[in-house]
Each structure stands twice: as structure tokens, then as C-alpha cells.
Specification:
By secondary structure, the protein is mainly beta. The chain folds into 5 domains: 119 residues, no CATH class; 211 residues, Neuraminidase (6 Propeller); 80 residues; 81 residues, Sandwich (Immunoglobulin-like), CATH 2.60.40; 81 residues, Immunoglobulin-like, CATH 2.60.40. Helices cover 7% and strands 46% of the residues. It contains 7 helices and 48 strands. A 5-stranded mixed beta sheet has the order 42-48-47-43-44. 32% of the residues are buried.
Amino acid sequence: MRVYVVFNILCHFVLSIMTPFSGLSQDSGVAQIQLRNNLDINVCSDDGYATFNIQEIEQLVLMDLGIDDDDFLEKILISTSNGNVLIVNSPSNNPNIETFCELDAELTDIAINSNKEIFVLRGGGFTEIDDNCNMTHYNYSWFGSNALSVDDLDNFYLGSATNTDVFKFELLPSGIITGDRWYDFDNGSSGGDFVLLNDKMYVAWRLSNNNFRLYEVTVNQDRDYISHVDLGQIPNNTFGLASELGRLYGVTPDRLYEINLSDFSFSDVIQNPNIEDEWFGAAGFHEASPYNASTHINFTDAENDINEIIGDWTNTIMGGQTIYIRIDNSITNEFIIAPVNINVETFPEVDPPEDLIKCKNDSFNSFDFNEVSSQMQINPNDDLIFVYYNIDPQLNFGAVPLDLNYQSISEAETIYVRVEYANSIDCSLFFDFQIINHETPDLLPLSDWNFPTVLESCYFDQNNNGYFNLNEIENDIILNNNDLNISYYISFNDAQNNTNQIQNIFFLENSSQEIFIKATNTFGCYTISNFFIEQDCILNNESLFNINFPKFFTPNNDGTNDFWNVYGISEKVRKESIIKIFDRYGKQIIAFKPYNSNGWDGTYNGNPCQSSDYWFVFYSDSGYQKVGHFTLKR
């Protein structure tokens, strides 16, 4: 995508333009333009192409010529209520005021022609002043006249504070003045001047004391009136207008201000330091300048004044090229050619930064911004510079870069990064990202055998195998159970590395076992603790919670369900319990201890019993008793 460059002349040397862009998407960007004595214009784009306003480049060249040639220096002449003629030097760069002449009467306006001859309205009369402030009076007086201007054809324009007419006249070499009405605006009166800018004439017109308007007038080649539009209201008491090297200025009794025609805004240039000496009139030093500028692709075209490029122009060679500005003096027919190097540098090609996240324990973490640089850089061969800040460097001129190894000071901080090529003309991209210190889950600290955290509850399956439900320890170990993922491991290293995870239903094979519990939150931050399980729970557990009495058995010596016995109790309970079995008529068939026997094999005195329902009574030393029945199937 190409960057559209519209120049605003801020100074001879450095000029900065902002073009719109959103978010940290870089479809368009910041075009930073620098004009130096070697006439280099440097801009940034994302593809090596940019669009330029040719007229603005020509104005920059004229300004640059002023560095070596006083005839091109920016100046605005101001006439005052106490009869002074002031010069505001460099109004677009570093304005300063000097006094040119001190006359003896109120000066309502001032004008300058192509020969740099200065004219003033003095007491309603038309007067010329030379470099030594000597005055020449012309036989022309119009009561109430307050506005005087000169165009590029050296026609004079005169307006009155009490009349709707504007007069156009010519000063002949003999000193005779001849002219006629230029236009009658029907309503209002002249507020201040009639000045040319970019082939349009701009008029400060007063409809009332609180309603000064700016008219844009279309004129023909002879500068005759064709039509006009009302651009809008300008500051009250704008008694003077001036155009100077492509800019339009207004003058009120207390200030000089610039009029931006693109958005019709106003910005102060310089204040009147002596308000008792009010500013009444203004004229740009080059307002009637005979200099014409044209732009050409090559030197030969500029030399022959052919194939002029105008309007908006995009460089035809990626990365830029040299164009040639021809400056003609229409009076002497002399010209100069100024080469201008257009340099269009591309923005760095990078990925937007990702947030840096670490888990905080007792203190905030340090972060290595080199990780961000590596993540952002797409082409490892690009020589890029990454600079990091904790305040936005685009809004804070004095932002100080951060060390690449940065010690954070809060849970979340916004970090700004500027990216540019090494030896760049400052084609920088700006991004921001977050560094985040997330809290880790809060668990009991690691314990040892001297002061163990123990899971004391265990259970038994239908085969009397003892097991533990590891989840039952969570409420004892986890102190803030908020959206945590829980996992279990046999070793600390396995827990750290997320390897060899075990299930929460754990069958103990040894006399005891250390288990490591890992709690991980939604941000990936984790804490590891531990607990112990012991075989004593399985051997001596008196719980009858999972006791199980089978509903049937099949004593056919096939190895499956050949015996009937009680299941789901510890060795201790099996040793201390007794089971009695009865047939359906109440006859006791057998009595046995579950620990000492595989169970009833379905015989009585060595003879197989028939298929039928049988009854049992279970007694434990704890006083528990259970009566039920089951089926023998053959």
C-alpha cells in the first residue's frame, strides 16, 4: 500500500507528517519527511512507494533556496496603527519580528509588487516607501480605503471599510493610476486583503463587526473575477491577509495566524508584543512573486520545460528516484533547476509482539525483552533495532529506553516497543504488549516423613484389593481451589515435566508411597506439593463402607465364582468376622472366618448342595451384623 504524502511546511530542515493508521496494523504508516540543504525528501511506506503533492514539493524547494538566496526567504510585512512597518521573518519555522520603517501616520494596509516595491495606505492615501523609508505619494485618495493588495501581474486591488466594491488598478511607469471596479459583493465591506494563492484569490470580507468571512475567488488569466464561494468565518478583525510560499495567513490587531485551507483551521504564528500599536495590514514578501515552479522526471525535460508533472504523483521506481524542479523568473526568463532526491524507505516487516507471562511466587519477575525481539522478527537477516519503553514514546518525547533485562514492578505492565532498520531514516513502527506476573496456586508446602501430610482414607474392591482415592486429599492441601487442574505423580521431576501422570484411583503395592500433587491454574502457573499413603490403612481399616456380599456363585470348578465369601473389607475385619450359611429351612450348612477360608464351596459334609437360595449371617467384632441371601447355581 502506498503512503499518501501531503506536505505541511513546518521549517526548512525537518518536516514531519502523520498519515492515518489503526491499531498496530501497518497497512499505512507514519511518513516522516526531512528536507535538508541537499534537497533530500525521505519518507516511509510499507512497499517502497509513496504519493506526493507536487505543489508542496515545489514550495519546499523555494523555501530551501532561501537558505542561500535572501530573495526566497519567508517574510510577511505588517503595517501598524502607529505607522510602523514590521517584518515577520520565517513565519512557518521560527518567527521573529523586526522593524523596517517608522512612519508618521496610521497605516491601514501594506502591499508589495513583483519588483519588491512596498506600498502602504497612509491616511487613505496611496504611498510608496523605499528601502530607506522615504515616501512617494501618488495622487490617489479614497475616503475609508483600508485594504490594498498586488497580484502577480502587478495589478493593485483596493477595498473600503464602507463600500461593497473592490477596485482594480494599474500603476503606470509615469506614476499615473488607471483602473476600474473589479467586483461588487453587494453586501458587507472589505475586512482586509485580496491575495493570490495557487491560482485562487482569497478575500477577507466583513459582513458585520462579529462576522468576518473568507471568500475563495476564481479568477481568469488576467485575474478578473469569475465567481466566488464563502469558505466560512475567520477570526474577527482579520484586517490583513497574506500569502507566502504556499501558505495563507491572517492578521488581527493582536496576532498573526495561519489559515489551513484543507480543514479550515487556524493556528497562531506570533503575538503582537505591543498591543497599543495594533496590526492592521499584511503582505507576503512573495505575494506578487514572478517565480513559477514546474516539476519534471528528468533533467532534460526540466531544461526544455516539457512533460511537467502536476498534482499528486507516485514515484515510479521502488525506493525512490530523483525529480527536477525548475524555477522560472517570468520577468527575466532566467531559471534554475533543483534536483530533489525522493527516498522511500520501507517499514520493518515484523510480527506484532505477544504478551510475556510469568508465574509469580514471592516477588515480581524479571523479563528478557530479547524474547520479544526474536518473536517479532520475521526475517533473521534483517538488521533491526528494537527499543523498549514503559511510557509511550510517541506521546512522550523524553521517554527513556529500558534495559533489555527488565525487572517488573507490578502484576501487569504495558511495554512499548519501537522497531526500525539500523541506519534508518526513522521509519519506525510502534507496538505495545503486556508483561504479566500471574499468581501461582496456594498449596501446603512439601512435607516429609517426620511431619507428613497423610491421606488416611482407603477402600477395597470386590477382590479385597485396597486402594486410595487421591482426590480426597485436595481439600486438605489446596488452599485456594479456583479453576485449578489437578494431577498426580510418583516423583517431583515427573510433576515438573508433566510425565508419567497417575490416576486418582491408586492401588498401593508397597508398604507406603509418597505422592506428588500438581495444581495448575488457567494461566499455566502451577504449584507442587506432596502427601503420603500407607499400607496400614489397608491392613487395619475397620471401615465396612464397601462391604460386598455376592448375589450368587457357581461352584463348578471352572475357576470363576467357585466360592462364596464376603469382599471389600480389610484383613483386620476379615480376621475378626464370622459368616454362617443356612439352607432355606434354617439348617446351618457351614460357619467360617473370611480370612482363613476361600469361602463356601457349595458342599455339605463333602456332598454338593443343590441349586437353590441360601441364607447368611455376617458378624464382626465391632458389632456389625448383616443378614441376607444368595443363589447357588449349578
